[in-house]
Amino acid sequence: MTAAAMSSVARAPLRRKLDQYGFFALAFGSMIGVGWVTALGSWLTQAGPLGAMLAFAAGGLVMLAIGLCYAEVTPMLPVAGGEVAYAYKAFGTSKAFLVGWFLAFGYISVSAFEAISVGRVLSFMVPNIDFGLLYRVGGEPVYVSHLLLAFGFTALITWINYVGVERAAAFQKWLIAGFIAITLIFIGVGITAGSFSNLRPLFGASATVPAVGGMLAVFVTVPFWFVGFDTIPQGAEEANVTVPARRLGLLILGSIVAASLFYVVLVMAVSMTGPWQRIVDADLPTARAFEYAFASPVFVYLVLTAALIGLLTSWNGFFLAGSRVLFSLGRARIIWDRLGHTHSRYGTPHSAVLFVGVVTVAAPALGRDALLAFVDVGSFCIGVAFVGVALTVMQLRRQFPDYPRPYRLPGGRVVPLVAVAGALFILAVMIVPGSPAALSWPREVLILAAVSALGTGFWIVGGSKRQRISETDRAYLLLETHADAAATAAGAFNTTDRSRSVP
Q1: What pLDDT is stored for residue 502 in this prediction?
Q2: Of 384, 383, 416, nearest to 397 (Cα)?
Q3: Which of 35, 402, 443, 453 could form a disulfide with 39 if both were Cys (CB 3.0 to 4.6 A apart)?
Q4: Taking the C-alpha atoms of 11, 13, 18 and 20 in order, what is their torsion angle to the nearest 10 degrees?
């Protein structure tokens, strides 16, 4: 008997409209974002040009190990919510919620980062756009104009995701084509017209932070800058018939390699344009570097146009991913079930989309000083999810060795172990007191505590919803036909409904 026949609940469907180019555009566009313009100064200050390049290369290798885990499990279980479904099948409901909650906040923190950044980028492009000073946070001004810009762009992204995934994908593909064309121009000019002598000093060592510490400080933020390849698992259920399951895994790996090359080459190109020390304190150091080097507004506007495109592609990708995680949790009745509904006309998770939009539009009220906090806390939350996925891959291999795997990662247990070790290392250095990359007190620690407390509240409030359906129904809601092939681990890990768990 199929899972659908066994289940007593209806499963809200999503429309299958994503092709392989849409998947790559979502992943790569989410990964490049706008951090390479707004945060480059901190990378160079902490690690120097070579140190930053090494940190991103090392981080890329860790992300590749984690990506290999995703490449195996995504084609194996191509359902919305990705990590939520994987953790459920391997470990049960509570672990699925833990992974999903931290991942959702990680995604929403990126969306919030972009909402804060949009005013910063546009104020550089359009003179006199900063008006209507309301207050200051940490010495940084909060303008009415920036809040209006954040509201307008958030409304645009929300509308695109509300009316259909095909529109979100088309929007992404056009933007990525433009981004690649523009960045090839200014990166090529930076390398060919620049000088390797400008890379000195190669490392950003200071009296208080040694070179290794600076590289470590950049390295631990890599999950925030590289996260985005996992938008592919979130949209896997919406793949059209032209996308074979195995290709989903290969697209994940390809997007990680492409983003790694982008970050390393970008740092090198910008640092070669002139002495990098003179740009680290600028608002948008990447744009300033080309302004100083070529004394022409042309390259500045090319950089800023690319930054705005990257901001929108990252924003769009993470908005889509965050809404799918919440949708998956809601559809499975793990949290508020309203988040698991789809629109009767558009086939989109409209309630989850609106929820992400509301949270995102509130972030700019915290001011530009909150940018680094969102980076650090978001990195920690995403790191938790990455640990969960790597452990899930190992657990699924033990539980279901014969389960069909369109893509099987090489190296057996070695790659998942490397992924777990790398992600745990990043988490450890963010919480160990005295670490140069530790979460700051009180702001970042309190934000993480608030996220954890809010998650605990959602879990407690959702208890009655979870108890109203059997594990057979929950398995179907999360896994659809993939609940048939083998037993989910939920019955073994959830004692509240053991008698009705999936056989």
Answers
A1: 29
A2: 416
A3: 35
A4: 20
Confidence of residue 494 (pLDDT cuts 50, 70, 90): low
What is the rounded distance in angstroms from the CA atom of residue 345 to the CA atom of residue 335? 24
Rounded percentage of the chain residues whose pLDDT exceeds 70: 93
Contact 106, 448 (CB under 8 A): no
Structure tokens that stand for 189 in this block: 């000019």
pLDDT value, residue 306: 92
Token reading at 346: 């558009």
Instruction: Confirm if 246 and 408 have CB atoms less than 8 A apart.
Output: no
For residues 85 and 3, is the Cβ–Cβ distance under 8 A? no
d(CA 302, CA 188): 12
How far apart CA 300 and CA 298 sit, in angstroms, is 5
- pLDDT tier for residue 206 given thresholds of 50, 70 and 90: low
3-state secondary structure 289-306: HHHHHHCCHHHHHHHHHH
All residues at 6 or more sequence positions from 434 whose CB lies less than 8 Å from its CB, including other chains: none
pLDDT tens track for 426-465:
899 888 888 777 888 888 898 899 899 999 998 998 888 8
Alpha helices in 163-244 (DSSP H): 165-193, 211-219, 222-226, 231-235
- pLDDT of 227 reads 83
Answer yes or no: are the C-beta atoms of 13 and 346 closer than 8 Å.
no
For 14, 125, 279, 416, the CA distances from 345, given in Å and listed in that order, are: 11, 39, 50, 41
